[in-house]
Amino acid sequence: MNLIVILSLIPLIIWSFMSPLGDRFADLNSITTSLGQILGLVGMALFSINLILAGRFKWLDKYFRGLDKVYANHSRIGAIAFSMLLFHPLMLVVKYVAISTHEAALFFVPFTDMPITWGIISLFLMIVLLSFTFYFKFKYHVWKMSHKFLTLAFIFGVVHTFLISSDVSRNVLLRYYILGLAALGIIIITRKAILDYLPLNRFKYKVKNLIQLNKDIIEIEMEPVNKKITFNAGQFAFFNFLSMGVSSESHPFSISSSSLGETLKITVKNLGDFTSGLINLRIGDSVLVEGPYGNFSNENVTSKTQIWIAGGIGITPFYSMAQSLKEGYNIIFYYSVKDKSEAVYVKELQYIETLNPKFNFNLWSANESGYINAGVVTNLSGGIEGKDIFFCGPPMLMDSLKNQFISLGADINNIHYEDFSFNK
User: Fold this and answer.
1) Which among 1, 36, 175, 384 is placed 20 to 30 Å from 369, CA to CA?
2) What range does the domain containing 243 cover?
3) Alpha helices, DSSP H only, in 17-66?
């Protein structure tokens, strides 16, 4: 995150040396103009960085300790960049208000000045697209398409930046920095859009078996066509199912099979939209797998004494870790469901428990015992001191557990969770 702050502030640093700051903040007009310029420069830099974060690079996955963390930062930075670019023209228009409201209104009228027009089009597109993103829930493919149009809005903003007479046009260093960062962002997001439709850098699998575990959850087993993916238990990958009855959009799923097995399994709950169509898969259908991603693994922490908490379909990474568990680990595992009939892999996990005396499995039913909470887990586990805590499940459950454990004295560095809320 420190790197992002530095990269976004470099334009501000260059700008601050171009003219005396006393002149830039001498009166109301100069202050608002300067604030407008700052918001525009930093906002453009952040937008460029945001496109880079969307590139789905494994080095970003490692740097942020999980792709879910990358996308969480992507969302936050996008909101900040949008806010800055929204207030950028509002600050600049203040000097026109001092002349007349008519002059100020003309500032937002397109086609009176082409450099400004590109900026108006860019801002209008961003307002429309991001308003839909924030306030409406769309199907995944519609949401994804809207983000592609956001890139178009950014390109219009870049054109505006380099056509308008400003500090960017007057300073070579500032111009090339903004241009270079913007070009890098556009190249990366274009590359990603192209790769979404090509099988490059992806593993080829085919569906081997489909098992209906309960009325809402299916297990999809796949076998490699040639080279198999190598992953750590707890990681996830993006899957493209090339089947007549299923959308070809790429979606992330935690891998539920052992990291030592030959086949690859994912366990999917029918949540509507894309997941409801997976029941239409047929044996032999082709699958493209991109990954692995994620830092959610019991082997990525110092302590081997751990508490695992799964909520609902959050069982999947833990089931993979349980099957791949190495010697020396002392695990207390709580699998929380509303009703026991919803639970999957219970017999398998109980069998692992019989083989490993240091693996303690507990099935928790909210209907019978109430909702699971950090206090109960702490008491049943003999305290949390010296233990790493893992949980995966619905976002509300994870937020609640995180806050509860912190209030009980848990170190935030010992709390680990996987958040798939970035996946529409």
Assistant:
1) 384
2) 203-293
3) 21-24, 28-53, 58-63
